[in-house]
Amino acid sequence: MESTLLHSFLKAGNLKRWLAKPDCPNVIKECKLLFDKIYAPKLSEDGIGEEAMERDLDFVRKAVPDDLRPLLGPLHRQAAMRARVRRNGIIYATSKTHTGNSLIQFYPQGNRSTLVSGSIKYIYQDQDRFVLAVQRQLPASNIVSDPYTIYPDFPAKLYSSQLSAELERVQTDWIYSHCARWNLSDTQSVVLSLSRVSHLVSICILI
Question: Which of 94, 119, 182, 202 has the CA that lies 20 to 30 A from 67?
Answer without folding.
Answer: 182
